[in-house]
Known about the structure:
By secondary structure, the chain is mainly α.
Amino acid sequence: MIVSLATFAAVWSSWQQRPRVTIEHLLPALLRAGIRLRAAILAEDHDLTFRHLARRAGSRATLGVYEMTRVELLRDLFVWAYERSTQVYLAIKQDLAEPDPLRLAWRNVIKQSLREVITHPENDPISSIQRSVAERVPAPEQADVQALIIEELRRLHGGVLARYGLWPSEYAAWKVVQGH
């Protein structure tokens, strides 16, 4: 874009004469509108911490505050972005599965049992799981907890070893003994 020297001078002089707007000036107006102001709103990147927000819209809203001392556009942009973010959050939350209550209740037993199976590769995994569950879980839930542990053992891979407090060398030794 080519700008004439006169246009540039006019813009520059109006820029220099503009009233300085600080966060203290903006905060009461935004709070009156019922908006909680985050420090990120006025950050250099004008991101508003919403990834789906167009960068140009944030820049224009911030320029409106600085050049015209009007916060309406920034407020409206923030409200729109917040509402959209809430809709995205609700859509994601709806798609998530509910946590398994049995897995949550017995997660420590599952971790300890898996750790025992892997750290003692010479023992039969099924009998080790049955013994561990019989010691720690009430009789009505033993079969379900054993099934969960076996499922976790089948899905075990190198990327989740830290969850169970295992070293890759322990897992590799167990796999060699088990013939995997």
